[in-house]
Amino acid sequence: MSNIYLPFTSRIIKIIQHTDIDYTFFMEYRGAVKPGQFFEVSIPKYGEAPISVSDIGDNYVGLTIRRVGVVTNTIHEMKVGDSLFLRGPYGNGFDVELYKGKEIVIAAGGTGLAPVKAIIDYFTEHCGEAKSLTVMAGFKSSKDILFRDDFKKWEQACDVTLTIERVDDDGIPCRSGLITRYIPDIPFKNVDEAQVIVVGPPIMIKFTVAEFLKQGVREENLWVSYERKMCCGVGKCGHCKMDDTYICLEGPVFNYTKAKTLID
Amino acid sequence: MAYKIIRERFDQYLQQLKKDYRLFAPVVLNGKGTFTDTDSIRYQEINSIGEICFDKKSNFSAKEVLLPITQTLFYFTEDNWSEPKVDDKKLLLFVRSCDIHAIRRLDDIYLRNGFKDPYYKVLREKVRFCLMECEQGFENCFCVSMKTNTVEEYDMLARPQGKFVYVTVKNSELDFFDGKAIEIEPKFPQKNMTEVKLPRRLNQDIAGSPMWQEYSARCIGCGRCNFVCPTCSCFSMQDIFYKDNANAGERRRVWASCMVDGFTDMAGGHQFRKSQGDRMRFRVMHKVYDYKKRFGYHMCVGCGRCDDACPEYISFSNCLDKLGKAEEADQ
Ligand SMILES: Cc1cc2nc3c(=O)[nH]c(=O)nc-3n(C[C@H](O)[C@H](O)[C@H](O)COP(=O)(O)OP(=O)(O)OC[C@H]3O[C@@H](n4cnc5c(N)ncnc54)[C@H](O)[C@@H]3O)c2cc1C
Ligand code: SF4
Ligand code: SF4
Ligand code: FES
């Protein structure tokens, strides 16, 4: 029987620094993986951490990692050519098929942009496959902005609204305040069919979803990705459970009709 | 087949079994209790029936055998893993009806909730049950209310009585007694001192009830109720390295508790259930509501160990009873 807890080694092939504390590590990986899924990333002696895939390539995945503690600090010390240990991918992820042919709006707060980046990449690279794509991303300050180069690419292919809470001019075009302020401006053609994805910290998800509902987006067309404390990633450790639902198994991506029934 | 045999013969039998089995049973550990001069009853390896504590409830359950408090998942060196070796021997556990039901709950999580857990699976496949009877249950037991007072899935039964042991062996693999066969019916408790009016129509609305706040004031978040529970299955992972060789170490899992700080802490300082009242609500709902939605029966088996262990005299059965009676009053 295969051991679900045994990781495999993966070499770091590239590192991009976005902010003081957020780096993307491109890791060797061959195998199926979907946007919104995550890997358990580890370094022996330090431990494991669940990290979403932010880039999906033929022979690699990108993991955008914020330095916040034991494991993530140690990963940030590593260099190209070093190896990390991975197991996964876990979780359900986003089903790209579901959004094809639709108006799509993706709203992300802070590091919540990482788990949806691969969908944005997909639809900006396959422009014709969606009716329209609107990306909204909110950060605290310009120092916190992730994926600056990618924003430039995305702007060529879709509508981008980048907001920061306090505007401090550092050259990147952005608007001030929270993204919720700009949701009423989205020119929905047929709001009944529009598919909306919201990812970010719990409080951001709450207000952003409320605003989309106010604009007439249907609950069944709203998708959220939940981040909860996780240890095992495989339905055993219990940390991620809400009601009878294991976020690591049945999530982290949920349709809002389901998500709204989950109480912490 | 059932037999009446003298104790010495039963001990010889256990010695014979020990060639292929490790025997685990509740044993009194003198002076190891929570308070000075109190004993603790825990699962330990035994050699003879005299060591087994039949007449009291064990403080901890047989869960300790299948899901050790700390369990090494693998050892590592620089870039190599090795899994710990597992003893070839099978396991014979002396357990009560509720405990067998409890292990079925652990099976759900470890074998049927998505992926199979390989560590649990190898041990679980080796387990045989020797039923210990409870004539009337103990303090705080409410197995009758939870319908876990009777059980059929056991491999043998042992009932010590004076100089004799009455034995039923259902699994032929364990049957090497000789002598005249007799008839023995297992005795199960039909009534407990504690009875619980189970809530039947619980739903998420109860989450907002002010009753949970009472627990915020009383509960100290020690997690004992989780650790003694035979059906609590949560764990956290830890890596350790060895002092004498920093290149080598191991990854372990250790029991975790939803009643204790840190269980839901996220990076950035967000905690999902801060108050003890919210944690109590989460634990109670898991034991008698959401688990049933997922697996078809309640998780709690009514062993009452959580009530036995709580230093603040918080009673789980009382909480269930309150929920049940509130429902009744609502009608
Ligand atoms: C599905 C999922 C996807 C995630 N994707 C990303 C990602 O793409 N990029 C990223 O930087 N982070 C992501 N996280 C968060 C990341 O897992 C935690 O920041 C990381 O586990 C912290 O580990 P550490 O050892 O460095 O911190 P620790 O030293 O263990 O702890 C530092 C802080 O992080 C908290 N923490 C510990 N473990 C977790 C955990 N499993 N989940 C959340 N918080 C935790 C601790 O309670 C503490 O507050 C994701 C989490 C989940 C559940
Ligand atoms: S919740 Fe309490 S009574 Fe129920 S199984 Fe666990 S320890 Fe026993
Ligand atoms: S044993 Fe009692 S005090 Fe300790 S966490 Fe459980 S309910 Fe709270
Ligand atoms: S992360 Fe362990 S059960 Fe979901």
UniProtKB/TrEMBL annotation, chain A:
Cofactor: [2Fe-2S] cluster
Molecular function terms, GO-annotated: 2 iron, 2 sulfur cluster binding; flavin adenine dinucleotide binding; metal ion binding; oxidoreductase activity
UniProt binding sites for [2Fe-2S] cluster: 232, 237, 240, 248
Cofactor-binding details, from the entry: Binds 1 [2Fe-2S] cluster per subunit.
Xref: Gene3D superfamilies: Nucleotide-binding domain of ferredoxin-NADP reductase (FNR) module (3.40.50.80), Translation factors (2.40.30.10)
Keyword Oxidoreductase: no
Residue span(s) of domain FAD-binding FR-type: 5-96
A Pfam short name: DHODB_Fe-S_bind
PROSITE patterns: FAD_FR (PS51384)
Superkingdom classification of source: Bacteria
Lipid metabolism recorded as keyword: no
GO process annotations (BP): pyrimidine nucleotide biosynthetic process
Keyword annotations: 2Fe-2S, Iron, Iron-sulfur, Metal-binding
Protein name (record): Sulfite reductase subunit B
Native organism: Anaerosporomusa subterranea
TrEMBL record, chain B:
Keyword Cytoplasm: no
Domain 4Fe-4S ferredoxin-type, chain residue ranges per copy: 208-240, 291-319
Keywords for this protein: Iron, Iron-sulfur, Metal-binding
Pfam families: Fer4_22
GO terms for MF: iron-sulfur cluster binding; metal ion binding
Name of protein: Sulfite reductase subunit A
Organism classification: Bacteria, Bacillati, Bacillota, Negativicutes, Acetonemataceae
